[in-house]
Each structure stands twice: as structure tokens, then as C-alpha cells.
Amino acid sequence: MVHPTPPPPPQVEPLDTILRRGPPAGDVPAGLAALRYKVLVDGIPSNSDGMSDHRIYTWLILLNAPPLPTDTYLDLVRQGASPAHAKIRNDTFRTLATDPLFRRRVTENSLTRVLNAASWKLLDAHEARVGGWIRSPDASFSEEDGGRGTRSQRASLAGSAAGSTAGEDKSAYVGYVQGMNVLAAPFLYTARSEAEAFVAFDALLRHELPGYIRGSMEGVHAGVRLVDEVLAVCDPKLYSHLLSRGLRAEVYAFPSVLTLCACTPPLPEVLALWDFLLACGVHLNVVAVVAQLVLIREQVLGAESPNQILRSFPPLQAGKIKALTISFVARLPDELYRRLIEHVR
Known about the structure:
- Residues 49-281 form the Rab-GAP TBC domain.
- Pfam families: RabGAP-TBC.
- GO terms for molecular function: GTPase activator activity.
- Residues 141-167 are annotated as: Disordered.
- The chain is globular.
- The N and C termini lie close together (11 Å).
- By secondary structure, the protein is an all-alpha fold.
- It folds into three domains: 15-44, no CATH class; 49-129 and 175-208, Helicase, Ruva Protein, domain 3 (Orthogonal Bundle); 209-344, Cyclin A, domain 1, CATH 1.10.472.80.
- Helix 7 (108-131) packs across helix 10 and helix 11 (218-234) packs across helix 12 (236-244).
- The protein has 20 helices and no strands.
């Protein structure tokens, strides 16, 4: 994770130059700093539909997601329906269902394949941890069976992982959780192939948002609680007004926290906001949710029933949200900012 306002490099080159040349003199930290700063300041150029020649490659670098052989992705797909398949199919048909840009470019079958592959990959990680044949739950998928057991045995293990409760193993990855379908959507829209989208999606889940896909999604619930805390610091009047109406963040903010705001259209603005979040840290999504509230504060303060307004956030305005988010971060106590970083882990 990085602070959203790093000191600018001496010279920031065009994005395509940074991507094509790579780290200067092999200095990876300096190269990443230049890339993050470029994205923070200028964003990623795209057309009116949000399409860009550079976005997916920039995201893959920011996610530290190396290329994956297509055959490795296909091996996961060939395993067929994961134990979470029924849940996946219950969600895929309604993923960004009202967004014509997404529906025109991404098929339900494509989304289903990526989500089932991700479910199997998470099961591999959980089985490896439980079985003890590798130490890290983040170990990469191997094409060799490596003692993973039969498909039925793995499905049984997935069922036990998905059934974890607060009194059981909270550290276990589950095969599929609410919101994963929406988190996969921007990658499928942006990527050049399913395999490319899968690599980025898998990296986001397991390395950037592991707390959102373990146990009972405690990371998501912690993020929702943090919305209240951040709002109390950044706009005490708005926070007190909502609190007086019984409107804690758990009433209205859960979908936005869960999906990194991807549940709120339009899609091109979601992609622009994700450019910022992936460059500066996905934990800042909590602050971005607060920024959206502040953008409509006058409506909320003047409404007889604020809940009606908060049921559906207004269209995303990535530029304004990013600017407010950066300004709000400077106001947060160090201890609160530390918990923002930690809640996604």
C-alpha cells in the first residue's frame, strides 16, 4: 500500500513511455513510483466508453500480477462447475445488468468461467493451507496434481470452507462470496482476454483484498464501520445528521465497500476511479465512499427522508471523488489510517 500523495519524481514521462521502457536502470521501486504518480496525476487515457490501450497493462503492473500461461487458466476452466457454481449463476445474469457498455462487451458465459476458475483457485489455496503441502495460502496454482486429491474430495473441502462461521476458521478462503461477480466485471471489460482478466482478478482478491474473501467477509464489515469513522472526522455535521436518523453506514454503504464502488454507474467512471485505487491502495475506497456522501451532503441534509437518497448513490464522478479522497486522507489520524490499510488484509 502506498500513500495517495507520494512525492513527485523529478520527471514524469508519458504513460506509454513508462510502460514500454520499464523501470529505469532496472530500479523497480522508482519505476513503480513514477507509474503510480502518473496515474494519480493524469489518470489513464481512455475513450468515452472507458476503453484504453494501456489500462489493463497498467493494472497488471500495479497489482504485481505476472503473466499466466493461457493453458493454466484453461486447466482451471476444464475442471468445470466449482462447488460455488450455483451461487455464481445466481449472480452472473444480474451483474451490471443495466449497463449497456458492459453487456455489449462481456458475456455471462465469460463471467461464469472466470468466477468458477477463481473459485477453484481459492480452493487450491485453502486446501494447500489445510493439507500442509505448501505453507502460504497465496501460493500459485500448479498444473501438477501435487496431492490435491480428487475433485470430489476438493469439493467437499470447499463446502467446509464455505461453511466457516465466526466460531470456526475465519482465515479460510471461501470459493465464492457476494460481490465477487461485480469485482470481476471491470477486469473482463478492460482486458484483452479472459485469461488476462482472470490474472488481474485473482491478484486483486488474494493480494489486495484477502480480508474480503475470507471467513464471514469480516474485512468488508470492518470497511463499512470505517465509513462511519472517516465521515465523523471529515464531515462531523453530516455524520451527526445521519446518526440522528439511524443511518449508520451499514444501512447504505455495504454494496459500495464490497465492490470498490463498481456497483455505481457509469462504468467509464468506475474504471477511472479504479485507476486511482489500484495506484494508491484499495483501502482508500472507504474514503471514496465518504467522498460520494459529501458530494450530495446538501441533498441529504435537506431531505425529509435521507434514506431515500442513500438507497441509490448518484452517478460516479471519479475526478471529484479522487480529489476529495486525497484531501480527506490528510485529515485522518495516523491510527485511523493504519486501520484503513489493515482492514483489507
